[in-house]
Amino acid sequence: MAHPVSPLAPKSYPELPVIAGMRFATAEAGIKYKNRTDVLLMAFDEGTTVAGVVTKSKCSSAAVDWCKANLPGGIARGLVVNSGNANAFTGARGQQSVEQTADYAAKALGCQTHEIFLASTGVIGEPLAAEKFAGVLDEAATRLGDTPWIDPAKAIMTTDTFPKLNGAIVELDGVEVKINGIAKGSGMIAPDMATMLSFVVTDMPIAAPVLQALLSQHVQTSFNAITVDSDTSTSDTLLAFATGKAAVEPITSLDDPRAEIFGLALRDVLFDLAIQVVRDGEGATKQVSIHVEGAVSDASAFRIAKSIADSPLVKTAIAGEDANWGRVVMAVGKAGEPADRDKLAIRFGDLLVAKDGERAVVYDEAATSAYMKGEDLELTVSLGLGDGRATVYTCDLTHGYITINGDYRS
Amino acid sequence: MAHPVSPLAPKSYPELPVIAGMRFATAEAGIKYKNRTDVLLMAFDEGTTVAGVVTKSKCSSAAVDWCKANLPGGIARGLVVNSGNANAFTGARGQQSVEQTADYAAKALGCQTHEIFLASTGVIGEPLAAEKFAGVLDEAATRLGDTPWIDPAKAIMTTDTFPKLNGAIVELDGVEVKINGIAKGSGMIAPDMATMLSFVVTDMPIAAPVLQALLSQHVQTSFNAITVDSDTSTSDTLLAFATGKAAVEPITSLDDPRAEIFGLALRDVLFDLAIQVVRDGEGATKQVSIHVEGAVSDASAFRIAKSIADSPLVKTAIAGEDANWGRVVMAVGKAGEPADRDKLAIRFGDLLVAKDGERAVVYDEAATSAYMKGEDLELTVSLGLGDGRATVYTCDLTHGYITINGDYRS
């Protein structure tokens, strides 16, 4: 938290609307940080459905395991999130801590423990004593409110330099349905099913399996399409809660034409939050969209785009404002996907720098260098092999990343 | 070259012996650098066999393509290497440049063009005019000598901060057979079949297919087991030349018991050179050996070790002398290989830090922190699943890497 605010931080934060059927409070449990909130408690009315995607890590955290076990139930009454300790790789004690925390929360909110969802973020490997939450959750439950949404966004931050929140309002059957979301994440960001932590709440009445299907679909082009440092967290969790209080008929099937409309609004929120995570990437000074087109398939395009976005040499060149497309060629070559060097074309923004396997005749060093000084960069690789395309969003790799991660744990 | 010499550089350089049947010269062609050699010419007597492994990159350089085409012939009379320009992603012009260079070299040495092997290293995407080599190779051919071996090691350097050379002498049938090798590489190091550039010469009479088999075998635990930054070069090339001048019976089959003895000596040279590349990793201040044991297979162990060695978060923690084993857990988890969190154990050196999926009872923060201040670190992950094991060698990730790569091209 001592690190300077990202130069890519938003100029202002949205004031998200109240969502009927849910309330929240934040608190200071003193888990690691001092003089800031580090616990978020959300309470959902009866009838709230839930869907989620979590990390594919083989070393997932105790809280992730807890969510995995309870997601099939599809119902939620509470959410407890803490920052400062990931409760990951904490063995049987971690599991007990999670059960105890859910028990405290269930008592505070008057529901069943399996209706409580949990997420923890912070240091890996330090035991997290559930006792920290005991009085804190009881007290927080007496203060539940429905605004402002920046408070929950702040309570879940770790190395984040700004809180991340976004919302959408979609009109269905003449009723304004709301979707609010928050996220955190700055390093260890190469989500594989979800980001570090993100929570989305809507008042839409929607069956859990439909919500799950929409979430799983749209996470692919939002959180799963970003990378800060290629490192996938043990704690990645994205949960969506639907209180069902909006005065419209429930969506109970993907065949309902409103599912697609609602899904696109959900996607907008997820995408905006994911981009905010990139823009708060540890040490980031530039946001970069890596577009790959003309690949043999979308999956192949994605793997090539990821190879470019994860390359330390590409990312340091961007930090140095160097249009070093030779390193882009290297990253295409190492991806292990079909590529024909002599058909490759590369653009920075609209500027063609390479074509047919060599530097473009129209290459303009001065114009390209000027483009690289911008804060939002677009890099497009055309493979000329097929119709596959994908975009991955990343940031540059700077001294800031080294500084932040050379002394994070201490 | 303006960057400070790696703190991990050797204190002195070996004086390698003369290898009968080959001579060399270095020269200044002014390709990119000023006031230093940037061309190496090696000349081999008739009867020299050759074997090689090159990058698997889909965007391999023109010189790599040339070597691939000529390796099946198994015979070599000359080698031309230049630094300062990789002649990669230079299209048809790159190919013509390579043919022209081989032609110059063949005329200078009095042999066939397909007996000339080529390698280029440096910037990607800049055309390399073969004319640069014309007079230079003719002149160099008049100065061919057989010592000192540090000269060829110096001529092939790019961002390297020290020359890399090593040799072995193995007694076969009472005769001392010699193996000399040089290598270069500092960044863009995650070889996939070979390193950036390495050349090994022996006076052993050995058939090309046998030499190839031994080279392919031993590259796996040497150059293919190192990573500096996870970026695989377009130009990775490892070539081994055997002049056959040692007064012993030729090895013509892998069944010859001497093949194994010779292979192990070859392996020692390859391994030492590979470790030197790690120790000259861009910005490196520590060398780290990542051992993985108890995996379901050797291949699985290797992928997990590589995941740890390539993790920017693990590498920055090591730079910060932080025994952050939580990040090691993260890297195990993201590798996508079988792992059981609750059976994992992790050691830094001999110090047990984690066991049975949580922090070890005997964990000693002070002792572990003291260990991390060392220059050569050993990190061992025990998975407890099977007998698979592998080791990957890497370095830390520091501000030096960012500085070097934020302004390399300019």
Automatic annotation (TrEMBL), chains A, B:
It is found in: Cytoplasm. One of its GO terms (biological process) is L-arginine biosynthetic process. It comes from the Bacteria. Substrate binds at residues 158, 184, 195, 282, 405, 410. InterPro entries: Arg_biosynth_ArgJ, ArgJ-like_dom_sf, ArgJ_beta_C. It catalyses: L-glutamate + acetyl-CoA = N-acetyl-L-glutamate + CoA + H(+); N(2)-acetyl-L-ornithine + L-glutamate = N-acetyl-L-glutamate + L-ornithine. The record marks 121-122 as: Involved in the stabilization of negative charge on the oxyanion by the formation of the oxyanion hole. The active site is at 195 (nucleophile). Pathway: Amino-acid biosynthesis; L-arginine biosynthesis; L-ornithine and N-acetyl-L-glutamate from L-glutamate and N(2)-acetyl-L-ornithine (cyclic): step 1/1; Amino-acid biosynthesis; L-arginine biosynthesis; N(2)-acetyl-L-ornithine from L-glutamate: step 1/4. The record marks 194-195 as: Cleavage. GO terms for cellular component: cytoplasm. Its EC number is 2.3.1.35, 2.3.1.1. Catalyzes two activities which are involved in the cyclic version of arginine biosynthesis: the synthesis of N-acetylglutamate from glutamate and acetyl-CoA as the acetyl donor, and of ornithine by transacetylation between N(2)-acetylornithine and glutamate. Belongs to the ArgJ family. NCBIfam families: ArgJ, PRK05388.1. Heterotetramer of two alpha and two beta chains. This is Arginine biosynthesis bifunctional protein ArgJ. The gene is argJ.
